[in-house]
Amino acid sequence: MTITKSTRYALYAAAEMAMAGEGLVTVAAVAKRYGIPEGALAKVFQQLVRSGLATGTRGIGGGYRLARPPAKITVLDILHVFERPRAPGGCLLHDGSTDCPQASACRLHWLFSEVDELVRSTYESVTLATLVRRAHRPAPTPALLQVGRRSRR
Q1: Angle (CA) 59 64 69, round 5°
Q2: Amino acid 86: pLDDT
Q3: pTM, 2 dp
């Protein structure tokens, strides 16, 4: 599954708001951190507000925060705002179309449908709180990565 730039920007913005807690996050700060054009990011924040996932405060000292606790917002919630929904039973091999020309003979449809369902349920199970918690974990050291591997000689 590929995601649009807007979705990627929204995920960055949502993660920053989750890390800020009750504090406000500005478009300028997020744009600078991730190297995103401010105009594009401002539109993403507006969509997050319109969807009810964020709230905004105008003026000096203004910014954005999540409308609900990070543990109550999933990655899938954000994807639903920015990604085009596929028709139920749609074919991933044919742009989500339900009228697949090879539907009766296709041996791949079940595989892609199953993988799509696994991806969707993973996005649904990961909250912004989980995303932020995972981001704060230290990276494993090379010594830890070697544990359990047998050396070949």
Answers
A1: 145
A2: 67
A3: 0.77
